[in-house]
Amino acid sequence: MRAGLAAAAAPLALAQRRRDVITKNVLFLVVDDLRPMLGCYGHPDAVTPHIDALAKRGLTFLNNHCQIASDGPSRQSLFTGLRPDTIDVVDDATTFRRRRPDARTLPQYFRQNGYYAAAVGPVLDDSQSWNEGDTRPVEASLTRSWNSSDVSDADLFDGQTAQRAIAVIERLAGRKFFLAVGLQRPSLPFAAPQSYFNLYPRGYIKALTEPAPKGAPAHAMHDSAELHRFGDVPEMLDAELSRDLVRAYLASVSYVDAQVGLILSALEQQGLRDSTAIVLTSDNGFHLGEFGLWGKHTNFELATRTPLIVSSLGLKSGGRKSRALTELVDVYPTLCEIAGLRTPGDLDGASLASLFENPDQLWKRAVFSQHPREIPGLGPGMGYSMRTSRYRYTEWGAFDSPYRTAELYDYKGQPLEIENLANVPVAKTLANGIAAIMREGWRGSLPPTDPRASANS
Question: pLDDT of 156-171, one tens digit each?
Answer without folding.
Answer: 999 999 999 999 999 9
